[in-house]
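Q: How do we represent a protein-ligand complex in a form that can be generated token by token?
A: Start from the inputs.
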Amino acid sequence: MSKVTIRTFWERKRSAQKIALLTAYDYPSACLMDESGIDAILVGDSMGMAIMGLPDTLSVTLDDIVHHAKMVRRGARNALLIADLPFLSYQISPKEALRNAGRLVTEAGAEAVKLEGGADKFGPAIKAILDAGIPVMGHLGLTPQSIHQFGGFKVQGRDPEARQRLKDEALGLQEAGCFSLVLECIPAPLAEEITGMLDIPTIGIGAGAGCDGQVLVFQDILGWGKTRFAKQYADVRGLTRQAIEDFAAEVRSGDYPGEEHQYS
Ligand code: KIV
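Then emit the structure tokens for the protein with 3-methyl-2-oxobutanoic acid bound:
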């Protein structure tokens, strides 16, 4: 498999070939994804809930993302490595947005960054990052950094006004120069309509089958998390729990370690 770049994303859209992304937060997971031919790996601020035991993404820091993205970088050879700009790392000023996006590139080796919200609010930040040569992925719909404004994790874009706003924001992000756009938790027909309007690829999460690609949180496909839209492909949680219980039971019974696990 050859190296995936943002140009691969555009080619896939042109040739109607779907794009598959997963989140990863560590080296072994990134190695497996890369070997399996995943197109892109997102070091997302979903790490707050997926691996840090937090209720939401709001207290995930730039240092957290840098720390985990460094591990993922070592495992991701062909997959495009995208890192999230966490809450308050790009909202304060375009200058801070660029400095923080730059850290994701120089310290962690990210090849693109992702931020949440429309170009009406963050156009200048997006421009500053793009002017420095860093590709930006947009993110609309249920943007988890705004959950308090939404009143919780709720499907977005249900009424006509919200639908129109999302369509305008999607076009705005394309115009601002985003290379791709995540659509999270919006009705499938709306996601399909937005996908048809744009030249850049849309990546859906809980946004139906009409997007140009799909992203899921790794822990969700393995059975560690529970969301309506995530499909569980394996019960790794159940297998891991069984392994822990078997280990503890064998230590207690004296069956582990056996002869073959000891040095004479
Ligand atoms: O943080 C994340 O993992 C994300 C994806 C769910 C799109 O933003």
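The mean pLDDT is 97. Residues 23, 42, 44-46, 84, 182, 184, 205, 215, 217 surround 3-methyl-2-oxobutanoic acid (CB under 6 Å).
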